[in-house]
Write a structure and sequence with these properties.
binds 6-O-phosphono-beta-D-fructofuranose; four-stranded parallel sheet; 361 residues; 36% helix; alpha/beta; 15 strands
Length: 361
């Protein structure tokens, strides 16, 4: 192996730069050059978007800065590039041609469930060895206990909750906070615990708005004479008939019960911030492991964390561990994804604190 290409695909999150940094350094140490594909696979359409990376010319804040210096790859179908004049370019062919022309003989890609679900087709065509590193604030990638970006997002959400706690207490209000995470409840559940929520609504657990309101009235106001608090709701939690986000209806029901209510959606703030120590460590460990896998001649692997150990699984394992369903953000695309484990100890913790987490025994 002489040259590794690096792609950061899907949505950005904290820790991607730390991963890029570690790939570049670890590869350099074994005499391998690294090339960044700015904007993902589609960088092959423009030579100026493929840049050689050197350990000593990386920005000084690579460990600390969220986002990615390589920008992100395309959202949607990465195999077809639609030109302004309506023509289309077959990206499988363009990618394969360019990568081989450049002499790039291995690829490391960071991505989430969406990117990995598409990887096989892309790399089977090309035959170029690849290793994938899981990143996402949603923590919904099958086969890994942790993804790059989750911990920093959780910290950012915690800061939002901290800031809201003091204002709700001053005004005797309730605020309904909408957290990101797509169809997975990990960020919301953990954000609710570390941010002191009175109710946590996640996609994986059915809920009742009247029961949530009763909980606030009985177990918060009546029991503790506390007239303020936070309710956190995952963006992927849905009310049935018609299917829609429950945030507005929860706020309305609380307001109808005589409480003063506001709603807050921290949105993309959850994707930025100073990268946490855990994310820097995980990104660095994943990256060094990925370079080593390629050095050993291995391909088609996803680097994962399982029971505190860095390991790798195959594309097949990734797919078999996931649930295949339609992507919320991309039309006509299915992904393998993993939801929150409702047998996890965090559920017992939430129940032990008397938090309303939905209709679950
Ligand atoms: O998958 C990461 C994520 O931040 C989700 O939590 C959220 O639903 C989505 O991306 C937002 O996507 P976009 O950046 O395209 O608005």
């Amino acid at each position: 192996m002489k040259k590794i290409g690096i792609i950061t695909s899907g949505g950005d999150c904290a820790g991607l730069n730390a991963a890029i940094r570690a790939i570049v350094i670890a590869a350099d140490k074994i005499g391998v050059e690294t090339y960044g594909f700015i904007g993902g696979q589609w960088a092959v359409l423009d030579d100026s978007k493929i840049v050689k990376l050197f350990p000593d010319s990386l920005p000084a804040d690579m460990l600390k800065s969220a986002g990615t210096i390589l920008k992100v790859g395309p959202v949607g179908d990465p195999y077809v590039f639609k030109c302004e004049n309506g023509d289309t370019i077959d990206m499988l062919e363009a990618f394969d041609k360019k990568v081989k022309e450049l002499g790039i003989d291995a690829i490391i890609m960071t991505g989430g469930d969406g990117s990995f679900s598409l990887l096989k087709k892309f790399f089977n065509y090309s035959g170029i060895p690849f290793v994938a590193i899981p990143k996402t604030i949603d923590l919904d990638v099958p086969g890994t206990d942790m993804t790059i970006g989750f911990d920093t997002a959780l910290n950012e959400l915690m800061h939002v909750m901290d800031n809201l706690q003091t204002t709700v207490a001053s005004h005797n209000r309730f605020i309904v906070v909408e957290a990101m995470g797509r169809t997975c409840g990990w960020l919301t559940m953990q954000g609710g615990i570390v941010g002191g929520a009175d109710a946590i609504i996640v996609p994986e657990i059915p809920f009742s708005i009247p029961n949530l309101v009763s909980h606030i009235k009985e177990n918060v106001i009546k029991k503790y004479n506390r007239h303020h608090g936070l309710i956190i709701v995952a963006e992927g939690a849905v009310e049935e008939n018609p299917k829609k986000s429950p945030v507005k209806d929860i706020a309305k029901a609380l307001s109808d019960a005589g409480l003063e209510v506001r709603t807050v959606a921290p949105g993309h703030l959850q994707r930025g911030g100073i990268v946490s120590a855990s994310d820097r460590r995980l990104a660095t460990q994943f990256a060094v492991y990925a370079v080593d896998l390629l050095r050993q001649g291995k391909s088609g692997k996803l680097v994962v964390l399982q029971c505190n150990e860095i390991k790798d699984i195959s594309e097949e394992d990734f797919a078999s561990l996931g649930k295949y369903h339609s992507d919320l953000n991309v039309t006509n695309q299915n992904v393998y994804t993993a939801g929150m484990d409702i047998d996890d100890n965090i559920i017992k913790t939430a129940k032990g604190l008397g938090i309303y987490i939905g209709e679950i025994d």
